Protein backbone atom coordinates (compact mmCIF):
# COMPACT_ATOMS: atom_id res chain seq x y z
CA UNK A 1 0.00 0.00 0.00
CA UNK A 2 2.71 2.50 1.02
CA UNK A 3 6.41 2.59 1.81
CA UNK A 4 6.35 1.60 5.48
CA UNK A 5 10.02 2.57 5.98
CA UNK A 6 9.06 6.25 6.24
CA UNK A 7 6.36 5.64 8.83
CA UNK A 8 6.63 6.68 12.47
CA UNK A 9 6.32 4.33 15.38
CA UNK A 10 3.18 4.35 17.51
CA UNK A 11 5.02 5.87 20.49
CA UNK A 12 6.03 8.95 18.49
CA UNK A 13 2.42 9.38 17.37
CA UNK A 14 1.12 8.79 20.91
CA UNK A 15 3.57 11.35 22.28
CA UNK A 16 2.32 13.95 19.78
CA UNK A 17 -1.31 13.16 20.70
CA UNK A 18 -0.45 13.59 24.40
CA UNK A 19 1.41 16.88 23.76
CA UNK A 20 -1.51 18.27 21.79
CA UNK A 21 -4.00 17.11 24.41
CA UNK A 22 -1.93 18.78 27.13
CA UNK A 23 -1.93 22.08 25.19
CA UNK A 24 -5.73 21.74 24.92
CA UNK A 25 -6.01 21.24 28.69
CA UNK A 26 -6.89 17.55 28.35
CA UNK A 27 -5.55 14.58 30.28
CA UNK A 28 -5.95 11.27 28.49
CA UNK A 29 -6.36 7.81 29.95
CA UNK A 30 -4.61 4.83 28.35
CA UNK A 31 -7.93 3.75 26.83
CA UNK A 32 -8.44 7.17 25.24
CA UNK A 33 -4.87 7.23 23.94
CA UNK A 34 -5.08 3.78 22.34
CA UNK A 35 -8.45 4.54 20.72
CA UNK A 36 -7.29 7.99 19.56
CA UNK A 37 -4.13 6.52 18.02
CA UNK A 38 -6.21 3.90 16.19
CA UNK A 39 -8.82 6.37 14.89
CA UNK A 40 -6.12 8.87 13.85
CA UNK A 41 -4.37 6.04 12.00
CA UNK A 42 -7.59 5.30 10.12
CA UNK A 43 -8.17 8.93 9.17
CA UNK A 44 -4.53 9.25 8.09
CA UNK A 45 -4.95 6.28 5.77
CA UNK A 46 -8.05 7.91 4.26
CA UNK A 47 -6.96 11.55 4.13
CA UNK A 48 -3.19 11.42 3.64
CA UNK A 49 -2.99 7.99 2.02
CA UNK A 50 -0.43 6.80 4.56
CA UNK A 51 -0.43 4.96 7.86
CA UNK A 52 0.67 6.88 10.94
CA UNK A 53 2.62 4.01 12.45
CA UNK A 54 4.00 0.61 11.55
CA UNK A 55 2.85 -1.41 14.57
CA UNK A 56 0.02 -3.88 14.00
CA UNK A 57 -3.58 -3.29 15.05
CA UNK A 58 -5.50 -6.23 16.49
CA UNK A 59 -9.17 -6.96 17.21
CA UNK A 60 -9.56 -7.70 20.91
CA UNK A 61 -12.73 -8.31 22.88
CA UNK A 62 -13.15 -4.63 23.70
CA UNK A 63 -12.20 -3.23 20.33
CA UNK A 64 -9.22 -2.49 18.13
CA UNK A 65 -5.93 -2.28 20.02
CA UNK A 66 -2.35 -1.43 19.17
CA UNK A 67 -0.75 -4.01 21.50
CA UNK A 68 2.59 -2.20 21.89
CA UNK A 69 0.87 1.02 23.03
CA UNK A 70 -1.62 -0.82 25.22
CA UNK A 71 1.12 -2.73 27.08
CA UNK A 72 3.22 0.43 27.50
CA UNK A 73 0.36 2.40 29.11
CA UNK A 74 -1.84 -0.16 30.86
CA UNK A 75 -0.11 0.33 34.22
CA UNK A 76 -1.91 3.69 34.49
CA UNK A 77 -5.22 1.81 34.61
CA UNK A 78 -8.19 4.15 34.28
CA UNK A 79 -6.16 7.13 35.48
CA UNK A 80 -4.98 9.87 33.15
CA UNK A 81 -1.43 9.52 31.92
CA UNK A 82 0.55 11.96 34.12
CA UNK A 83 1.30 15.18 32.27
CA UNK A 84 4.81 15.30 33.71
CA UNK A 85 5.66 12.32 31.50
CA UNK A 86 4.99 14.47 28.43
CA UNK A 87 8.09 16.38 27.30
CA UNK A 88 6.75 19.33 25.34
CA UNK A 89 10.26 20.60 24.65
CA UNK A 90 11.41 17.48 22.81
CA UNK A 91 11.71 17.92 19.06
CA UNK A 92 9.13 15.88 17.20
CA UNK A 93 10.41 13.73 14.32
CA UNK A 94 6.97 13.96 12.69
CA UNK A 95 6.48 16.12 9.62
CA UNK A 96 4.64 19.41 9.95
CA UNK A 97 1.78 17.93 7.93
CA UNK A 98 1.38 15.01 10.34
CA UNK A 99 1.67 17.26 13.42
CA UNK A 100 -0.98 19.59 11.99
CA UNK A 101 -3.21 16.62 11.17
CA UNK A 102 -2.87 15.28 14.72
CA UNK A 103 -3.54 18.71 16.22
CA UNK A 104 -6.79 19.04 14.26
CA UNK A 105 -7.66 15.44 15.10
CA UNK A 106 -7.16 15.88 18.85
CA UNK A 107 -9.22 19.08 18.81
CA UNK A 108 -12.08 17.12 17.23
CA UNK A 109 -11.86 13.80 19.12
CA UNK A 110 -9.77 14.50 22.24
CA UNK A 111 -12.66 15.48 24.51
CA UNK A 112 -14.50 12.19 23.93
CA UNK A 113 -14.39 9.67 26.76
CA UNK A 114 -12.75 6.30 26.33
CA UNK A 115 -16.19 4.70 26.23
CA UNK A 116 -17.39 7.11 23.52
CA UNK A 117 -14.24 6.52 21.45
CA UNK A 118 -14.63 2.78 21.91
CA UNK A 119 -18.23 2.89 20.72
CA UNK A 120 -17.08 4.61 17.51
CA UNK A 121 -14.82 1.65 16.80
CA UNK A 122 -17.43 -1.03 17.62
CA UNK A 123 -20.21 0.02 15.28
CA UNK A 124 -21.61 -2.34 12.70
CA UNK A 125 -19.39 -2.37 9.63
CA UNK A 126 -16.23 -1.12 11.34
CA UNK A 127 -12.98 -3.01 10.74
CA UNK A 128 -13.18 -4.42 14.28
CA UNK A 129 -16.76 -5.59 13.72
CA UNK A 130 -15.73 -7.23 10.43
CA UNK A 131 -12.91 -9.35 11.87
CA UNK A 132 -13.63 -9.93 15.57
CA UNK A 133 -14.82 -13.39 16.56
CA UNK A 134 -15.98 -14.03 20.13
CA UNK A 135 -13.49 -16.16 22.02
CA UNK A 136 -10.73 -15.58 19.48
CA UNK A 137 -8.13 -13.02 20.49
CA UNK A 138 -5.47 -10.97 18.80
CA UNK A 139 -6.93 -11.05 15.29
CA UNK A 140 -4.94 -8.73 12.99
CA UNK A 141 -6.81 -5.84 11.37
CA UNK A 142 -4.89 -4.94 8.22
CA UNK A 143 -4.36 -1.39 7.01
CA UNK A 144 -6.26 -2.05 3.77
CA UNK A 145 -9.43 -2.85 5.74
CA UNK A 146 -8.96 0.18 8.02
CA UNK A 147 -8.28 2.44 5.02
CA UNK A 148 -11.38 1.23 3.17
CA UNK A 149 -13.58 1.95 6.20
CA UNK A 150 -12.25 5.47 6.77
CA UNK A 151 -12.29 6.29 3.04
CA UNK A 152 -15.96 5.31 3.03
CA UNK A 153 -16.57 7.58 6.06
CA UNK A 154 -14.72 10.39 4.28
CA UNK A 155 -16.79 9.92 1.12
CA UNK A 156 -20.01 9.92 3.18
CA UNK A 157 -18.94 13.16 4.86
CA UNK A 158 -18.02 14.81 1.56
CA UNK A 159 -21.31 13.74 -0.04
CA UNK A 160 -23.35 15.06 2.89
CA UNK A 161 -21.48 18.38 2.80
CA UNK A 162 -22.16 18.99 -0.91
Provide the descriptors you would attach to this structure in a database record.
mainly alpha; 3 strands; 6% strand; three-stranded antiparallel beta sheet; 162 residues; 53% helix; disordered N terminus
Question: How would you explain this protein's 3D organization?
Answer:
- With 162 residues, the protein is mainly alpha-helical.
- It has one domain (4-161).
- 53% of the residues lie in helices and 6% in strands.
- The protein has 7 helices and 3 strands.
- It has helices at residues 10-23, 30-47, 67-73, 96-109, 114-122, 127-131, 143-161, and strands at 57-60, 63-65, 139-141.
- Strands 2-1-3 form a 3-stranded antiparallel sheet.
- Helix 2 (30-47) packs across helix 7.
- The longest helix has 19 residues, at 143-161.
- It is globular, with a radius of gyration of 15 Å.
- The two termini are 29 Å apart.
Helix and strand topology:
Layout: H1 10-23, H2 30-47, E1 57-60, E2 63-65, H3 67-73, H4 96-109, H5 114-122, H6 127-131, E3 139-141, H7 143-161
Antiparallel strand pairs: 1-2, 1-3
Helix pairs in contact: 1-2, 1-4, 2-5, 2-7
Number of domains: 1
Radius of gyration: 15 Å
SSE pattern: HHEEHHHHEH
Average pLDDT works out at 92
**Class of secondary structure makeup:** mainly alpha
Q: How would you describe the shape? A: globular
Uncertain spans: 1-6
Terminal Cα separation, in Å?
29 Å
Largest sheet: 3 strands, antiparallel
Q: DSSP helix count?
A: 7
Oligomeric status = single chain
Strand content of the residues, in percent?
Answer: 5-15%
Task: State the helicity in percent bands.
Answer: 40-55%
State the strand order across the main sheet: 2-1-3
Number of strands: 3
Amino acid sequence: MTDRSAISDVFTVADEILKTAKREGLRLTPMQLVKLAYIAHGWSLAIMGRPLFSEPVEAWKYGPVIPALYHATKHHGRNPIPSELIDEEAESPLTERVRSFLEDFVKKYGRLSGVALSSLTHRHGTPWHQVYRKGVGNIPIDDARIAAHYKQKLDEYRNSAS
